[in-house]
Automatic annotation (TrEMBL):
Membrane protein topology class: Multi-pass membrane protein
Cell membrane as UniProt keyword: yes
InterPro entries tied to this protein: Virul_fac_BrkB
Subcellular location as annotated: Cell membrane
PANTHER family per the UniProt record, alphabetical: INNER MEMBRANE PROTEIN YHJD (PTHR30213:SF1)
Transmembrane segments: 48-71, 108-127, 155-175, 195-218, 230-253, 265-283
Protein's UniProt name: YihY/virulence factor BrkB family protein
Keyword Protease listed: no
Key words of the record: Cell membrane, Membrane, Transmembrane, Transmembrane helix
GO cellular component: plasma membrane
A UniProt-annotated Pfam family: Virul_fac_BrkB
Organism name: Modestobacter versicolor
Length: 318
């Protein structure tokens, strides 16, 4: 006679099997989770998380350098920036930050070169981990290493992701501002419910921009042979999930912003956790796309070198 725990586990598995048989979308989610676990998606995501977090620091140097070039010829804007920093951060900390900001403006070229070199080094490392992870998700193993070819691939993928991200941001901000301006010109911006229209436009454009990024992530980064039309459902799936993750991230930042103690450590820890969750979701999206029936069937017909290890049964993500 089995113990209550074993009976409960058996009942849960039976319920999951019945639900998977009745709901194809649930079966697909669980099947994708099994593929994600077989390729050790969490481990792949941890490497991406490490490099992406490190890349934030050279990015900040680049931002400071750009701000320095913009403000170097405008003493009034520079003074306003320094004053705003002192007012936003009281005490000696604010004065020190203001002094550092002023010094960064004076050393914009140096900061820019250091930031660019650091970003290329760490950014290429992040893309390398992302590319290798995508290769493992799609083909069960990475391609044989080739330093020069791999660096060129990573540089192309980094530029592609940057271009897709920039296009996404430009599309979202530009079109949202344009829609608000059009409503103002038509004189209906004050009409009750008009904000719902602009909000819907903003969400639709954000999803469109995220879809572009995920399309490049699924096709450009791993050099996927499948066409855009075949990969589009996966890109849309990733875009919707990423918007949900952004909402959760904004909620978390708002939550810790209400507590001074949490701000000290929670900001960095929360940022690392959020990057890791996004990286995991990116690999899960690739697993979900790779297990679309038409793609999985076509993929099984193409020889991919040595056979992959015997797969484990599909298990749900926890």
């Amino acid at each position: 006679m089995s113990d209550p725990f074993s009976r409960a586990v058996g009942a849960a598995r039976g319920l999951l099997r019945r639900q998977r048989a009745r709901r194809p979308w649930l079966d697909h989610l669980v099947h994708a989770g099994g593929r994600y676990n077989r390729v050790q998606g969490d481990l792949l995501a941890s490497g991406v998380t490490y490099y992406v977090f490190l890349a934030l620091f050279p990015v900040l140097l680049l931002v400071a350098s750009i701000a320095g070039f913009v403000l170097s010829g405008n003493a009034l804007l520079e003074e306003q920036l320094v004053t705003a920093i002192r007012e936003a951060v009281p005490g000696s900390t604010g004065a020190e930050l203001a002094e550092q900001a002023s010094g960064a403006i004076d050393r914009a070229t140096t900061f820019g070169l250091i930031g660019l070199a650091g970003f290329l080094f760490v950014g290429l490392g992040a893309v390398d981990k992302l590319r290798v992870g995508m290769d493992v998700v799609w083909r069960g193993r990475p391609d044989p290493p080739d330093f020069l070819v791999d660096r060129l691939k990573d540089l192309g993928a980094l530029l592609g992701l940057g271009a897709a991200g920039a296009l996404s941001i430009a599309l979202t901000t530009g079109a949202t501002a344009a829609s608000s301006r059009v409503l103002g010109l038509l004189g209906v911006d004050e009409v009750p419910g008009a904000f719902l229209l602009t909000g819907a436009v903003a969400i639709a454009l954000a999803l469109a921009g995220d879809t572009l990024v995920f399309l490049w992530l699924l096709k450009g980064v791993p050099g996927n042979p499948f066409g855009v039309r075949q990969l589009l459902p996966g890109a849309v799936f990733g875009a919707v999930g990423f918007e949900v993750l952004k909402l959760v991230g904004n909620w978390y930042l708002t939550l810790i912003g209400q507590n001074v103690t949490a701000q000290t450590l929670g900001g960095f820890v929360g940022l690392i956790v959020w990057i890791n969750v996004v990286a995991r979701f990116a690999f899960y999206t690739a697993s979900w796309t790779a297990t679309i029936p038409s793609i999985e069937h076509a993929h099984a017909l193409v020889p991919h070198g040595p056979a992959a290890p015997t797969p484990l049964p599909d298990v749900a993500l926890v």
